[in-house]
Amino acid sequence: MGETVLAVSRLQKTIGKKQIIHDITFDVFAGEVFGFLGPNGAGKTTTIRMLVGLAKADGGDIRIGGISLRENFPEAISQVGCIVENPELYKFLTGRENLEQFARMSGGITQERIEEIVRFVDLERAIDDKVKTYSLGMRQRLGIAQALLHRPKILILDEPTNGLDPAGIRELRQFIRRLAEEEGLAVFISSHLLSEIEMMCDRVAIINQGKVISVGLVQELMEQFADQVEWTIPHAHLPKALEVLRGHNAVTDLLTVGEESVRTRMDMERVAEVNQKLVQAGVPVVGIATKTVTLEDLFLTLTGGGGEK
Amino acid sequence: MNQSMLGLVQNETVKLLRRRRFLVVVLILAILIPIFTYAQYRSVVTAQERMGTTDWRPLLTQQIVDMQNRLASSRLPDEWRDFIKIRIQQQQYYLDHDINPMAPGGPTFARGFMDQAISMFLPMIIVVLAVDIVSAEFSEGTIKLLLTRPVRRWKVLTSKYITLLLFTSLTVLMTLILAYLLSGVVFGYSGWDLPILTGFEVSGGELVTSGAFMLPQWQFLLMQYGLGWFVCIVVGTVTFMVSVLIRSAAAGMGIMMAALISGTILTQMASSWESSKYLFVVNLQLTNYLNGTLPPIKGMTLPFSLAVLTIWAVAALIVAYTVFTRRDVTS
Asked: Start and end of every ABC transporter domain (chain A) (predicted)?
């Protein structure tokens, strides 16, 4: 795990009389892709706007590379590259002129750096055309070019796959993984699509109604719910069943649900073997249900259906 | 100005030029000035035909007689009576001192053009230049790129304001140059040294000629275009505020046009509503103070108008900076 690049603590935001962001806390480390997952209206974009200085937080603290965004905006934001919503660029300028605009604002960016980043996003042939002639995919790449131009430590992308075709999404996913793994960049991605986060991210924060519900490794969160087997056993035989299950090396986790049911996490291929052991011990197994939980299920469980409290 | 601000102003200049705003302004001037030149030419020709002579003295004498006849009419309102009396005194002064007030020539046309353009035409052109300088960034969404750079918001806004000041100044300069060059094709290019009468004061509805003196036309033009520049800066600054407050360029344009037009109407309604003299749009006709024309509302003087305009500009800047640096950017 790399150094902490982005530290958000107890972030709050009220718009009008409505508190949009209640209490958001998480850290993002160098070299990881961090997912920010929540349904539409959960406060993702509002949070991102605060992270990049477009909106002011009412409470809490945002530190980028250890520097407070509130106290030293220029130095903190110079370590951030971002695309908030769509990559909106100056359509009446060429790609190169756009990059030159941002180069002059950041300072210390050479012509060579511009050439380098243009090659990096593979826009050499179109860079001297006006942006209004670009396709959405090309605009997306130019957007990434402007975000990476000043060599930020963290890249913040708001719903980056919106409007991209499946090929474009795959390309973007590989690109982001490469940035994190090869360049050691921290990448922060918001999304309302679970599959996207599942495929792209190392860690994820799940938010709903302006609160972080859960933060953790995507794998761990998956495992927590995945590969469950639910055993239905008559109440009288339950203690015996628990004893057998605990003693078996295929079973890693065990939970009693209700009066006649035990939920276990275990290797699915060894269900028959465990069942045999139970029967041999004189436990009548009434039912065996296997269940593979996707992040989707997890998400619904955590957010209580996504909508109401 | 430090290095980073220079870069920011360069950015804004590129954007303004590539949005073709300045090109539009120059084109408007280049099309309308020949039209006004032709109109001026026609009126001179018509006057000469009517007089049957190219000598301007009988023409001026005739004008004075015309105005005296109008004075004799009993239906003339008092304020018009005062105004015409002053004009007669002035014309008489020109006649007595052998000065042709309509002496054609590029510089004279440029002088007449600024007189006409200062309250409406030039401000409108400046509105075209300034109205979307901030709001376009919001409506196109590029504000998000602009404000997520290591530059504080007030610096971003300052770079835009400096760019606006530069191009406003350039517009006034272009007006003088184009008015001189284009009208000179018809009227000739001489007349820089023509003596112009100024220094009139209006006191109690009377033209006080005691302080009047002669200025070479080039000096008069310099003063006149200086005042025109000041009016443009003030209108530009107010438009700048509107551009910060209102995201739609069309709405901003509408607001500024309505303000300028109502200013013209209020000026013509004259003294009936005295406190309207504190509105900036009523104070745009600064060149009238040089010409000795009666101000639209009693009590208005050049220092008064300059003060009103300055206060409006400063207030507009305060509002613009406060809103721009504090506002959350939403889509």
From this structure: 6-234
